[in-house]
Amino acid sequence: MTNAPVYDATKQRITELVQGRDPQTPVAATPGWSVKDVVAHLAGGLRDFVDRRFDGVESGEWGERQVRDRRANSLDDAFAEWDANRELAEPLFDTPMGSVLISEVVQHEHDLRAALGVPGDRDGVAVRAALTKPLQQLDQRMRENDVPALRISLEHGDRVLGHGEPAGTLRTTSFELMRAIGGRRSVDQIKALDWDGDPDIWISSLALFGRHRPEPFEE
Q1: In the chain, pLDDT over 70 holds for what percent of residues?
Q2: HEC string for the chain
Q3: Of 38, 39, 93, 176, which is the most buried if we count CB atoms within 10 A?
């Protein structure tokens, strides 16, 4: 099943969300970026996926380069580029890269919602789809590093990460899990979730990009 409809629906929500808003509104979830910068990153990042250009992903320079290169552009420019790159990216949505694109766009939708004070769409198919690739990556990482298995209990069912019998359980929502593993929650916020077992066993493994947010982030 293609990921394109989920991506396009999320893109449309973002378009409607930011229309008529101040493009320079700071986005606290992505420090140093404005609303315009986030859209520019989504546009530029999509082209990088098309071109298979992933240098600087681990350091964060990947996204910073996209934003920096488009500082002089307007929000309308960013949306025009995003539209053009969306056409180029069509073949990607039926590949494993499609689930990565979903994770990226949905996470940033909620970054923008938090910045603009318009929460919503937290319990739909998009958020669940945005967890597909991250959970696969976390499962692989835990297995490779011999981290004890963890059962994650979400509103639509359970998932075990890692190998063997689960040594603990985390009960949360798909939205909170997406934000936690995507670097939008601090260590203390993650520890405050509903755990059976010592969360310290899994905290570092749940940082998809190698780090959690240094300070709490409320939305």
Answers
A1: 100
A2: CCCHHHHHHHHHHHHHHHCCCCCCCECCCCCCCEHHHHHHHHHHHHHHHHHCCCCCCCCCHHHHHHHHCCCCCCHHHHHHHHHHHHHHCHHHHHCCHHHHHHHHHHHHHHHHHHHHCCCCCCCCHHHHHHCHHHHHHHHHHHHHCCCCCEEEEECCEEEEECCCCCCEEEECCHHHHHHHHCCCCEHHHHHCCEEECCHHHCCHHHCCCCCCECCCCCC
A3: 39
